[in-house]
Each structure stands twice: as C-alpha cells, then as structure tokens.
Amino acid sequence: MAALYFDHAATTPCDPRVQAVLLRALAEENGNPHSTTHASGARAADMVEQARAEVAALLGAEAREVVFTSGATESNNLAIKGAARHLATQGSARRRVITVATEHKCVLQSVEDLALEGFEPVILPVNTLGQVEPDVLATALADAPTALVSIALANNETGVLQDLATLGALVAQAGALLHTDLAQAAGKVALDLHALPVALASVSSHKLYGPKGAGALFVRRRPRVRLTPLFSGGGQERGLRSGTLPGFLLAGFGEACRIARAEMARDAAHLAEVQAVFLGHLSTRLPGCVVNAREAGRLPGIFSLRLPPDLRAADVLVAMPGLEVSLGSACSSAELAPSYVLEAMGLSFEEAGRSLRLSPGRFTSTAEAERAADSLAQAALQVRAMPRRPGPAA
After folding, report:
1. Residue 271: helix, strand or coil by DSSP?
2. Quick check: pTM over 0.90?
3. Which of 59, 86, 115, 198 is the least crowded, having the fewest Cβ atoms under 10 Å away?
4. For 148-173, how does the pLDDT look when each residue is reduced to its tens digit (9 = 90+)?
5. Domains identified in the chain and CATH numbers
C-alpha cells in the first residue's frame, strides 16, 4: 500500500488538470516569450500573459503588478533585499528591516544578510499563539526609521494566520513597506492585496498544486514600489527579474491559480473535515495529543501536533514509514531538530521535540485521514514498547 502523504505544506502534487496544461504547453509552445517578432514567440508570450492574469486574479492584483520568479524563495529575496537596496541608493535614512522569529528561513536569512550592507535587522518575538502583537511591532517601528517589514500571512509549520490589516496599518503609518510571504496562504484564503496595506507579496506555484520552479512577486503599482534587481540580464519582467521565462511552467502555474480561485471554498471545507476526522480518530487511539496554537486563527490544511510526554517526534517518525509527515519546515526538517518556530512560541525544547507537522491536501480522503491516525497511533505504541534511549528530545 502506498504511503499516505501528509506533507503538502512542503510541496503539493501537481493537480492532474495542471499536468494536462503543462504537457500541452511543453509540446505545442516552444517559442521564446520575449521574441515576439514571429508567431511562435507571440503565442508563447500570450501564454505567459494569460498565466500572469490568473495569478493576479488569485491575489486581487493587476496583471502588471505580477513579476514572475522561480519560486517564493527568490521572490522573498527580491522583495526584501531589492526594496532595502533601492532605498539605500536614494540616500534614505531608513536602515531598519523588521521581520518575525517564526518566518521561513529564507526571509530570516535575507534580513540577516542585509546587516552586511549597513542595515539593522530586527527579529520580533511572537506570543504563545505564534502571532505578532501590534504593540510590539509599533514599538519596533517607533525606535528607528524602518525601510521594510516582512510578515507572512500564514505560518508554514503551524498554519497560524497573522492580522495583516492591523499590522500593515502600523507599517504604513510609519512610512515603511510591508512585504508578506504568501507561499502557504495563496490559494487557501481569499486575497485582495489592493484592500490591504501590502507593498510586496511572494507566491510559489508548487505550494498550490502547480509545478516546481515557478513563482511570482506582487509589486504594488500605486503607490509605486521600486526594487533593485538581484541580478543583471536582459531586463525582462519590467527590469526586475532578467532571464527567459519558462512558458510551460508558468502556464501550469496559471492553471493552478485558476483552479484554486474556483475551488478555494470547497478545498477549505474539505481540509477542515479531513483534519477533524484525523484528530477525532487519533484521540481515541492515542490520547494526550495537542494541536499547537489550536486557539489561533489557522489554515485548515496545516497543523502542528504535539505528542504525549513519553514520545519523541523523531522516534515516531522513524517508526511510521507508511505516513509521510515532517518535524517542521522542509528546509530544516532534515536536521531532525525541534522546530525553531515552536520554540519561538514559548514551547520548551522538549515540547517542540514532541511535535510533528501534518498537512493533508486537496486529494486526501477522510478514509485516508483515519488510516493516517491509525498509522501514527501504531507507531507511537511501537516506540513505547522500545527501551527508552537517553538524551534530549529530538
């Protein structure tokens, strides 16, 4: 029997409808979308622009505000470093760059990297639910002129949502730019970026049932946000991201966005049901499990599960090859170390070491949710029957 895949927060499988678009585009449209002097290039350009329109529609943005990239990691780097560097070239006194302790590693590292260029990185704490307190952000903004603040709408390990409307208003009042990483939220919650005080927003195709290697950065047009590109080239994508665009990948990305916009409500209801079935079934098989930050507003498709005190997550993970989950974000789970996100929320090293991230998806059935709960409970019982190894939780 195939393993049960409960790690959609790391990556999602391509929706079959997206696969069909990818294959057709790869077979039929091989022109360079930047070579519009002939029919093949014009068709490829049309395909790219259709994809751009679909991404924009999902975000509540204009098509000309969408810059294509290779994924959210590149988008995050371009947004954070590009905005800060542009302000520096204009002689701005704004040298503070603020983010949050629970952000994705690429955001945290991008902010830290700017310290080498004379910027002041500030990493804000979160409360026990993993949310930024408005007064904490307000204090950080008041302490020094701030260039940019980066806060993800949805956390990639807990699914916890931030109040971007409230936080963004504080950022705007301080005259800074707000960037948000939408890698987990796009396609799962309704978005209207023009209604939010967001200057920049990152999206990844492979997090919403599209192909890997494609992503986008929303760059607000009014008021216009300016960036310094990360690298030099032919000046594609409004001069912000040079390089020949992969038309077939973007066609798949666009189709994934179209499907997500059409089926978002149904997906959300389905994921909420799958999560409820899993947790309900698990509670009878393995009492004592706790959902971290359960009281917070969260995405229905991602939850961080803390096991009972006598179980270490890494041990249970090894004992259940039939259920594919993670210890935390995909970029750091290979370390087999407790989640820095959970520790930032106030969990102890031991409590974080008892936590697993589970993320079912669009095609996960309720029957599979029950099987997954059984697999986890069986693995836990197996671990309990083993001699206890000394050492800290991992």
Report:
1. helix
2. yes
3. 115
4. 999 999 999 999 999 999 999 999 99
5. 4-11+264-384 (3.90.1150.10), 16-258 (3.40.640.10)
